[in-house]
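Protein record

Derive tokens from sequence
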Amino acid sequence: MSESAAARRLGILLSGRGSNFLAIADAVAAGRIPNAEIALVAANRGEAPGIAAARSRGLPAEVVEAKGRGRAAHDAEMVERLHAHGVELVCLAGYMRLLSPSFVQAFPNHILNIHPSLLPAFPGLDAQRQALEYGALVSGCTVHFVDDQLDHGVIVLQRTVEVLPADDEAALSARILEQEHLAYPEAIARVLSGKYRIAGRRYVAAPAERS
């Protein structure tokens, strides 16, 4: 493989089961995220099931334990691990920590997150419950760049999910998760293509990417 065709290296951060990580890994393996490879899967909790899943697939997987450590020290070590593996794009996949400004600055406009609502509606925890309690008729998921504010960065892609009258939090969450597994790989492929620009708070696709 020539240098110009070298696979782009992804770093996946997770705290739990890592279902979005598995969707990304499947998409990479199937070629739906062209010219990409997972360089590192990392967790802030040693018991995170996603780490075992990564190792079972033969992917590099490491734990940077957060318990009992300050955010700055933990984030500095995580950034060091990501750089050591040559990571170019960081993908948060159920990573339950707010990144420090120094972490964000280490990968400017190269950190993605997925959130189970149509941002800017219902940021933070329990977004599906927030949508139900508010009486929203439509919810969904958002893939966005990460900045130094919670669930705030420029939006790359959104998918909608109708909120049904009979929905409870579990039912709505399950349907949103199905769309997350489609949206995240698509958004990663868009960002890796480089065929976009950011204008203010807008992600603007190059003409060839528009459908």
